[in-house]
Each structure stands twice: as C-alpha cells, then as structure tokens.
Known about the structure:
Elements: H1 2-13, E1 29-32, E2 38-41, E3 45-48, E4 57-62, E5 65-70, H2 71-79, E6 87-94, E7 105-111, E8 116-121, H3 132-142, H4 145-151, E9 153-154, H5 162-171, H6 178-196, H7 198-208, H8 210-220, E10 233-239, E11 244-249, E12 259-267, E13 272-280, E14 287-293, E15 299-308, H9 316-330, E16 336-338, E17 353-357, E18 362-366, E19 371-375, E20 379-383, E21 392-398, H10 405-421, E22 425-436, E23 439-450, E24 453-464, E25 467-476, H11 481-493, E26 495-496
Antiparallel strand pairs: 1-2, 2-3, 3-9, 4-5, 5-6, 6-8, 7-8, 10-11, 10-16, 11-12, 12-13, 13-14, 14-15, 17-18, 18-26, 19-20, 20-21, 21-25, 22-23, 23-24, 24-25
Amino acid sequence: xxxxxxxxxxxxxxxxxxLAEPRSYLDYTDDILEDGSPIxxxxxxxxxxxxxxxxxxxxMAEDSGVGFYQRASYDAFQADGxxxxxxxFRLGCSVNHSFDQLPSFRYLGFSEESALNYYLELPxxxxxxxxxxxxxxxxxxxxxxxxxxxxxxxxxxxxxxEPQAQAQDDSAAQGVTLEQARYHFEHNALxxxxxxxxxxxxxxxxxxxxxxxxxxxxxxxxxxxxxTAEDCHEVLFSADDGATVLLLLLPKPEANTLCYRIYMVxxxxxxxxxxxxVEYDNLLGDDAFLCGWSAEHEHAxxxxxxxxxxxxxxxxxxxxxxxxxxxALAGVSTALTCAESAGPTGGETDNLALIECPQLGFSxxxxxxxxxEYEEGTxxxxxxxxxxxxxxxxxxxxxxxxxxxxxxxxxxxxxxxQQQYGEDLIAVNxxxxxxxxxxxxxxxxxxxxxxxxxxxxxxxxxxxxxGTAIYTAKYVDAHGEATLKILDTxxxxxxxx
Length: 497
C-alpha cells in the first residue's frame, strides 16, 4: 500500500490543471491584427495569415484538425452539394510522425510542453471551384501558404506570450477532455514516474492494476471517465536474463496518439529500462504505431502497421510475440515467459476447499485437511493443528476503508497491544512492506509472553475500494512456517463480495 500511495503522490505532481487548459490543443480564438492580418490563437501557437486573406478565408474544426478554406470556392462546392471546396490546409498535431504518410504537408515544430508535433496538411488535389476570379484568388492564396508556415509562432519561443494567455482565458471554464487527460496520463505522467523508479512502478501496477492508478488520477483532476476495472488488464512477462516486461492493456482509444497498450521493460542487473506505447492513428485503420519515450522524455516512432490495434487484445500468443519485439528494442532477452500473477491461476486452486463467510461478505480458500470456523467480531479462524488453539490464521473483513494503514498500526493497534500485554510484550516491529500472498502489505509483528511461551502475532491490512481485509497469523516460539503458508493461501484466494 505504501508503494501505491507513493505512486499516486508522484502522479499528482504531473496532475492536469483542470480549469487552466483548453478542451483541446486545437481549440482556438481568432482576431484581426492592426495591419489587417487574420490571426488564430491555439493553445501552444498562433497562425498569422496574410492580410490579403481577410474576408476570404474561414476556419472549421474537424476530426483530424482545424481546416482553413477559401470561402468563395467552398460556397460554390456547397451550392452543388459537394464538400471540401477551397481547402487550403489543415492544422494538426501528433505525438508521433504519422503525418509523414500524408501526400503533402508542412512541418511547423515540436512542443516540449505537450510533446506534440504540429504540422499543416495540404490538399492532395486542386480544390478551387467556380469562375476564373475564384480560381485566381485560390491560386494566389495557396501560393502564400509558405508565408503562413513562416509566421507560425510557438508561445514558448516568444518573450511576450499574451496570445497564449488569451486562448487559455477563453477556454478556462471548459475543463479538460477525457482524451486530453488520457494523453497526459499515458504520455507524460506515467513514463516520467516509471523512469524515476522502474522496479517500484512495475511492482505497483502488476499488484494493484493500472485502473486504480488511472481512477485516482482522473478523480484528482475532476474528470468524468467511462471505464471500469474490466477495461484494463496487466500481463507480466519475465526474461531469462532477469528482465521483466509489464504489459498494460488499456481501454479502446478515443483519439489519435492514445494507447491500446503500454509496455514497461526493466532489467535490474544492468539498469536497462524502456517505456513503449502502441498508439492509435486514424491513418492506419485497424493497425497501430509502436512508439516509445526515453528517460529524457524524448519520443521515438518505430513504425506503423506492424501491430494490429484490436486483434491482439485476447490473443496471448500474439501478445507474447509483440512483447518479444519490445524486449528486443529494449536490449533485453526475448526469451519471455508469463510470470506468476499475484492471484491464483489455473490449477492452483484445484486442491483447495472454499471457505465462505457470508456474515462479513467474503470468501477464501484453504487446504481441505485443515479445520476452520467463524467467530462473530473476529472472523474466520483457520487452524494449523488443533481446532480452537494456537497456531492459527484469521481472515476478517470490514467495509471501512482504512486510508492510512501504517498510521493506524502505529497509533491504534500497537498501543492496543502495549496496553493489553504490558511488560509481557517483548518486541514490536512495524513493517511497511511485508511480502505475502503475492502482495506487499503494511503489517505489525508482535512477540509477547504467555505461560512461559513466546507467541508471535502478525497483523496485516489490505485496503481496497470494497473495504479492508485484515489478516492475522498467530504461532508459538517462532514456529510459524505452517501458519504463514495458510495465510499466504488465504490472501491469494481472498475475494470480497
């Protein structure tokens, strides 16, 4: 739990300013400068058009960008029931270089702030329409597109960024879109925190799932999100050279550059780490781009159409093949196998008996040769030897969420043990990261004296949205192996209603 909280705290550093950004990087306001030039202010740059275009051009928001049209030809097309007339260029942005596949474009530049590439998409055919006058006007305007490119200005490069402030003020009340939040989470916050502590992030996400992290991020920024925990999945691979590859399967992307999947690669012995994204792009249809972020937050594009966007979601063999290609890019062994998951899988539960506790709304499992019973107010006792006596394990559930379990242990449970046993309490160990049952849990380990015997009691807390599971193991004279094994199984198979 400590690691998850640390991860959430780190992500909060990269939280979106929920009311300070436009809904989209391509939202705009427009104005006329003193020399008569039309100007359009976007979130990160402005486009100044030639003064001669005043009254002859208009902009229109479209799915793939903001299109600029010669009004005369556009109106003539519309009169004949046709679209696209007078198309001059379209401003677009992309986290990768997918626009390289366009028939014609002009590159404007890269923003360090958003990690977006901006470009102008140009027409692939002649779009003038109408009489000779409209055609001549279109030709003259199209000849000046290079002037538009030359006058495009990124606010970060200016000493007086008033246009940026104006654009933000006009859109401040509109909030942040789901697409913008996903982009920030997938391309900014998560890779930055991953490179800060690869082992911890892989551990947190493999144990707790990416959904919990995404939900906390969305809640922090006041974002309405349509996803459920079932929309996100994790697969952990291990390589024969000690590397791990964590695959995050994400909800279907709603817009370009958002991710179908994310791969995190880490090899502790060498320090090798890599963050790779499989990104949607409408130019590729059902295919996707494989891209990545470096530790310096530099973006790389490894190409498109090599990895299908949707078909892989339920195909373990194809996912393994893709993970092997990612491992090769990261410079680790491609001899991958699926690592053991945090919970029981396959036949691990075939030889276990189900223990249901309807009184507290949970179930767990144990070796059928053991004895167990429910005690009101305490939970389910699972006895390692003789029913009704030490050693045993206890599983208990409360609907209350203990927000800070380590604080609870220090301020509530340890004082309780000190008061109950007094001088017979021999030792107290408060553990922030006790590993058992495939989890890392906060715990208190207490040793006290009873009738000449040293009793060890381990108390663990597992907090989730459905309340708190409290696990206890109690054994005599440090002989706790059998009891801890019972508790390990109970934690792995625990399920709350």
